Amino acid sequence: MIVTEGLSKRYPGVTALDRLTVSIGPGVTGLVGANGAGKSTLIKLLLGLAPASEGTSRVLGKDSATEGAAIREQVGYMPEHDCLPPDVPATEFVVHMARMSGLPRAAARERTADTLRHVGLYEERYRPMGGYSTGMKQRVKLAQALVHDPRLVLLDEPTNGLDPAGRDEMLALIRRVHTDFGISVLTTSHLLGELERVSDHVVVIDGGRLLRSEPIGGFTSSTTTLAVEVTDSDTHPSGATALHDALVTAGVTVRREGGQLVMVDIPPGEAGDRGYDTVRDTITDLGLGLVRMEQRRRRIAEVFSTRADGATADPSHPATPAPAAPAPAAQEGADRRAE
């Protein structure tokens, strides 16, 4: 669906994208990075709305540098910022966007009605958009991105400004775009937890550089956590402390959480099987009672934050020194200049 090779975008004093090479297939892909990481710049380059400083990008097999108009005919785009004319009803605006995408008038009106119904705005379609809530405006922007039945939609911070309930509803809509209509999605966010809920694949960028790109399971499969709760005994008045210390001595990565809860990091594969055996045998050797032992999959936000902090590292993804990144405010300003 999307392929970039050595893609860079530079502004005076700021590198918004730095030799980004990544391949994105069908499904729902989350593009995550802090504000100013280069997410909006990447979308503009993919759509042919801004020229790259170097490198190439292809969307649906077409070159972004020379075939931007053809790409935009097959791709929907939901911009981050509020760009809706306040005095125009939603139905009129979405019909206009459908016509701009090449649909005949009758087809544009039919598609507009269907799309506004899909995003939950059918009953409000004749109201001027200036009276809409933030959540309703985000839904209009999603509707205009979908109205011409694209193969791919690019959503720039679609949950921006929404309350928790609004975020949940928008995320459900995004997932349905793919499951119900077969449209692939690239959605950006600076909130990892959001993307974990809807994405099949996650791309992480920082300072315009690629940090990681892989299926969602790859972020968590190597970081399964075993939650173990044990009782105390006459020999060990604090069973959790005894278990923790014994596992540390055995070379197991472990930490305390709460009173009697011991959290054990379990690697994948055969090493993980040995980890389970070590925990079980240690509890038996200490003569402790087992209250519960349950497997938890760590959230992607936890995996990324610990790796970013350097507190833990996945040996299958060794850390590499990164060059100093420009200040986020400066990068964000550069992104906005590309609009």
UniProtKB/TrEMBL annotation:
This is ABC transporter ATP-binding protein. Residues 305-339 are annotated as: Disordered. The lineage of its organism: Bacteria, Bacillati, Actinomycetota, Actinomycetes, Kitasatosporales. SMART domains: AAA. PROSITE patterns: ABC_TRANSPORTER_2. Residues 2-232 form the ABC transporter domain. The keyword Glycoprotein does not apply. One of its GO terms (molecular function) is ATP hydrolysis activity. It comes from Streptomyces lonarensis.
